[in-house]
Amino acid sequence: MAAKIKAGDKLPMFSYDTPYRAQNRFRDLLAAQAPLVLVFMANFGNPVTRTFASRYAETYDKLYSGGFAMVVRSRADKLAASLAQDALPFPLMCDADGVLYDLLEIPTRGSAWTAYSLEAWQILRQAKKQGYRAAKGAEQQMPLTLILDKDGKVLFCHYGTSLTDVPQDCEAMQSLLEELELIPDSFEKAELTGLKD
After folding, report:
1. Is 195 helix (H, G, I), strand (E, B) or coil?
2. CATH H superfamily, domain 15-196
């Protein structure tokens, strides 16, 4: 592929590692959770990434018409040592080498001025008060949000223009699925049945 992905393209099937299990099949995740919202962010040590992972965990039950997974540029073995096994209710895919990021041409930016939103500045300012120190001159990994069907076909694609240009929480993901009319028939039938009872 080696180009920016767009709606209608297909993501190749691959294996991925989480902090607690290696060689998971992406095909199995799609089969179980499509439509799948897939959010790519910076490494898990980045305060912005951690903030959004926490938000997604806290609001996970608001996403009931599809699945969700997060991709981070971190090593699975490093995260396993610092992240409790049941800390997140969704898969955390680790791509430390940036294979998927390169494949999908997810950009990085060298300047904080072009990468940070007001929200990112606020998150990072708070993190600095707690001892966080960013590496000087480090490239900033931009995010990407995809929605995929069970075959890996891209139904929605958004390359973020700042570190926080991703769905705010899982309720926002649910709203996006509804607005794009991507709710599977089985969910619609279940809702109608619930209304009749």
Report:
1. helix
2. Glutaredoxin (3.40.30.10)
